[in-house]
Design a protein that fits this description.
The chain has 497 residues and is mainly α. Helices cover 72% and strands 0% of the residues.
């Protein structure tokens, strides 16, 4: 008996030791990520200075750490040129290979800044060193950023350039192009490209599911569904969900319910997405109570609602201005072990914004932060615009401080409204402080905001402070010379191909 107890004590002590080691390891990794991010965020004159600082940091630059750093750069909108230098420095070490995730994240950061020439240079480098790092996801990442700012023709030309870069340039890559066009362009564009290129590829179930998910009218979706069957492609749950969704958005709920019956006849079990579409469709025809009943109905079929399903039902009550019922659904989802996300809160922020309810918005924001749910850009814009409308500087600065500290939201979009408010209220010192915080984050304030602050500084005879801000802003405008200058311009779409 004594031996058993001693063994239990030893096992517990060993388990606690392992747990402490893991916590210490996690803490050190987070510290290393912060240290590297601090190095990347500084304003370096040359790339060599950045590299020397990385070498002397003492941080072991593993694949895991690099992925974490790049992920943080992506979501904090960090400096793309200096991040590229970091990526090349770490990838240039003997025997080291970047993961596909790291490559894709770096390409996203460059594409978002429209540094397309560097995108293709990096892809060529990856092709020479490790072709397997270029995946279908890579194709989607690059085409997604290209399609954001370029024409359909340029997007297709970029797709063709991947033929020499991707080891297996097949239907999956074709599907990546179609998905991009559906998301960033129009269904007409996607349909035209599909018909012009489909003979060079073998359209599969995923091809049709991608295109079906983008149709806006039931007539178009039905026609494409017919073509799919004529080609011998058997529809699955995703296919039916796309049709249900288009019927619901077209307010043809009866047809959507008939599809549910057809799915069950084909032994295809409707999933949570199917029911979420139905809930949204019922809201569009003004039946939020019936939509709420679907939450119970789906449980009877062994399908349990997720956050998105609850959000759809909550949205219906928010649209109907029945906030009591909406709050009751939030409480219900929490009782089921589901955590409200930023979309959940945005449903209420929208109502409060349009009803000009500052206090309710602020209370909800504090509740959101207390729950550990970080706002997204939409949340921030609802809030900052409402603060601007009420000329509430304290709340606006509190929001900005949380953004800077926790790294959520778009600094560029929020700062434009914030600087308008601060300048209108004569808070030049606060505006300058926020301006500098933004630059320290590697984010370029808009020229409109800078000109407004410049005028106020001139009127206040703060010439030295203005000169300092001008120098800091000039950093963002210098031409990029890789390995010499650390800042980048925005490339025009014409320089892409």
């Amino acid at each position: 008996m004594l031996v058993v107890r001693r063994c239990s004590v030893v096992e517990a002590a060993s388990s606690n030791l392992v747990q402490r080691r893991r916590l210490l390891s996690c803490s050190k990794r987070n510290d290393d990520v912060e240290k590297v991010l601090s190095i990347i965020s500084r304003r370096w004159t040359t790339a060599e200075q950045l590299k020397e600082s990385l070498k002397s940091s003492g941080v072991f630059l593993s694949n895991e750490l690099i992925e974490q750093v790049l992920k943080r750069v992506r979501f904090s909108h960090g400096n793309p040129s200096q991040t590229l230098e970091f990526f090349r420095y770490t990838g240039g070490r003997r025997g080291f290979y970047h993961t596909p995730f790291s490559l894709d994240t770096m390409l996203y950061v460059l594409g978002r800044s429209r540094m397309f020439s560097h995108v293709w240079q990096l892809l060529a480098e990856a092709r020479r060193k490790d072709p397997s790092a270029i995946t279908v996801r890579t194709v989607m990442v690059v085409l997604g950023r290209v399609a954001k700012v370029c024409s359909v023709r340029q997007t297709v030309e970029s797709f063709r350039r991947f033929r020499k870069l991707v080891p297996d340039f097949d239907s999956n890559c074709f599907n990546a192009l179609l998905r991009t066009l559906c998301q960033e362009k129009s269904m007409t564009d996607a349909r035209n490209v599909y018909h012009s290129l489909k003979h060079g590829f073998r359209p599969n179930l995923q091809t049709f599911n991608i295109l079906l998910s983008g149709w806006k009218t039931p007539e178009d979706a039905e026609g494409f569904f017919k073509e799919m069957r004529e080609m011998g492609v058997t529809p699955d749950v995703v296919t039916y969900n796309s049709l249900v969704d288009v019927y619901c958005k077209g307010r043809e709920i009866e047809k959507a319910y008939k599809l549910l019956d057809e799915m069950r006849d084909r032994d295809l079990k409707p999933d949570v997405i199917t029911y979420t579409c139905i809930i949204g469709g019922l809201g569009l025809i003004g039946q939020p109570d019936k939509a709420r009943g679907v939450l119970k109905e789906m449980k009877e079929y062994g399908c349990y609602p997720d956050v998105a399903a609850y959000n759809a039902a909550i949205r219906n009550f928010c649209i109907a201005k029945r906030l009591g019922d909406a709050h009751a659904l939030v409480d219900e989802m929490v009782s089921k072990g589901l955590s409200p996300n930023a979309t959940t809160y945005n449903l209420f922020f929208r109502v409060f914004y349009w009803s000009n309810d500052l206090q309710s918005s602020w209370s909800l924001y504090k509740r959101m932060m207390l729950a550990g749910c970080l706002p997204n850009t939409q949340s921030c814009m609802f809030l900052i615009r409402l603060f601007r409308r009420h000329e509430n500087v304290d709340m606006a600065l509190r929001l900005w401080g949380d953004m800077v500290e926790k790294g959520f939201g778009s600094y560029t979009l929020v700062s434009d409204v914030l600087f308008d408010l601060l300048c209108d209220m004569g808070k030049l010192g606060e505006a300058e402080k926020c301006f500098l915080e933004m630059i320290e984050k590697g984010q370029k304030p808009s020229n409109v905001s800078f000109r407004r602050i410049k005028v106020l500084m001139e009127l206040a005879n703060r010439h030295e402070a203005l000169q300092s801000l001008t120098q800091k802003m000039a950093v963002f405008g210098r031409p990029l010379q890789v390995h010499q200058s650390m800042e980048s311009p925005t490339e025009t779409p014409d320089s892409l191909c």
